[in-house]
Amino acid sequence: MLINHILSSYRKADCLKTLLRTDFKRFFLSSRQKSFAAAMSEALDKLEQDNLAKKSAKDLENQSVKETNQVKRNLKRKKWVDWKAKDEEDAANGTKRAPFDPADRIKRKKSAILLSYCGAKYFGMQRNPGMQTIEEELFKAMLKHKWITEDSFEQVQIACFQRAARTDKGVSAARQVCSVKLPEDLDLQAFNQDLPEEIRLFGVERVTKGFNAKDQCNARTYTYTLPTVAFAAFEEQHEQETYRIPAELLLKVTDTLKLYEGTKNFHNFTSKKNFLDPSAKRFIMSFTCSEPFQSPQGIEFVTLKVKGQSFMLHQIRKMVGLTIAIVRGNTTTTSLERALTEERLDLPMAPGLGLVLDTVHYERYNDRYGKDGIHAPLTWEAQEQQVREFIEKYIYANIYKTEAEERNLLDWLSTLHFHSYDTRRDEASTEADGNQKKPNDDDDGEE
Question: Is 187 among the catalytic positions?
Fold first, then answer.
């Protein structure tokens, strides 16, 4: 009996133990399930709150944009003016409304103009307050003939004005091109009568709406005209009126100029540019020298012609200056080779008198639009004879006369021996950031 009682008690204890274990497990699982559900509920609530916050922020942003656009529309919308009441008010104040000027309603279209000028007495092409510049004379004549409005005269960006290239003080242009919005009916002869005789506008062509004289220009050609005595050996003494360059020396000039051709780093041929600056790399398509010719004063000249995609400030004058120094024997071609490396060298810069912007090229534009039957190619063939006559009479005549009377280049030649053609100690450590752009080193700011 005792054994049966013990066994019975053991079985009851085991059942109780199993029951307790099962209840505890069920309780534990139930607790975990409740915790997970609570966590999910909290996460969903938070997600909903975030979505509401984002929607609210988006609504506020859309409302702000809508209000801004409404303000812009209100500013652009012309307000109705009661001119009768306005005239009565002005009359009471002793003023009178200006009569309507039909020129203000003239429809203007994007045009390209062909401009030639001798820059000897001007402070460059670009408009500069208080200075006598080519653009100032041009804009004054345009305003007088109602080609542009008063607002455009004060702020030429309104008329979408853009020059193909900038020229500095004393530098001339044979075939400068500018883009600007102009009326359709233009009297060039009357317009030129109101320009100084050393500035002439030879042609106007309608161009595409998005045309930009600088951006669409894919190449520029410059010339530099100088007496051949500049290439005589530095230890020799010659009179520029009687000097005639030998054939072998002319060949040396040609060979030296060819060293510039191709894509090279010209950081030494401008100012404040680092070797690592990508904009210091320029592509020179050709650099040639003409056959010698005599000026009316009996002095022998040659014309150097360089064509490139674009040029930097002083680049051409420094290339010419170093070429002269090499041919004369002040230095060697080694200096030119070093100048195209990361070294910072001391190089001479030729005077600005002989430099001329000869041609701006629009081959890509002409190929795309010049044969569409609507737009003419920007080659200016019809004006070429007039342009050549102007160049000879005003630009080259001024170069020949000034060199004969003032001997600018001869005076400059006497300073070549002061240059070291070696590392510039004052600028040996240049800026580490080669991508930094300087104010006057933009493209086509060569002179």
Answer: no
Q: What is the dihedral sign for C-alpha 18, 19, 25, 29?
A: positive
**Residue from 199, 214, 180, 178 nearest 132 by CA:** 199
Spatial neighbors of 443 by CB under 8 A, at least 6 apart, are 214, 279, 310, 311, 312
Structure tokens at 308: 């490139």
Give the active site residue among 168, 358, 441, 443: 168
CA distances from 419 to 106, 373, 384, 415 (A): 57, 56, 41, 8
Whole-angstrom CA distances from 91 to 79, 101, 425 are: 21, 20, 72
Any idea what DSSP says for residue 263? E
Q: Which residues contact 126 (CB under 8 A, 6 or more apart)?
A: 133, 135, 163, 166
Residue 211 in this model has a pLDDT that exceeds 70:
yes
- Percent with pLDDT over 90 in the chain: 59
* Backbone dihedral region for residue 239 (phi beyond 0: left; psi -120 to 50: alpha; all else: beta): beta
Query: Percentage of the chain surpassing pLDDT 70?
Result: 82
The pLDDT-based confidence of 100 (bands split at 50, 70, 90) is: low
Pair of tokens at residue 296: 């009316």
Q: Which residues contact 392 (CB under 8 A, 6 or more apart)?
A: none
Cβ neighbours, 10 Å, residue 216: 23
Take residue 101 and report the two structure tokens written for it.
Answer: 């000027």
C-alpha 172, offset from chain centre = 19
Lowest-pLDDT choice from 25-34, 257-266, 342-351: 25-34
pTM given for the model: 0.73
Q: What sections of 147-296 are H helices per DSSP?
A: 150-154, 188-193, 247-258
Question: CB–CB of 214/444 below 8 Å?
Answer: yes
To which residue do tokens 């002179």 refer? 447
Query: If you count DSSP H runs as helices and E runs as strands, how many of each does the chain have, helices first?
Result: 12, 10
345-393: per-residue pLDDT in tens?
999 999 999 999 999 999 999 999 988 888 999 999 999 999 999 999 9
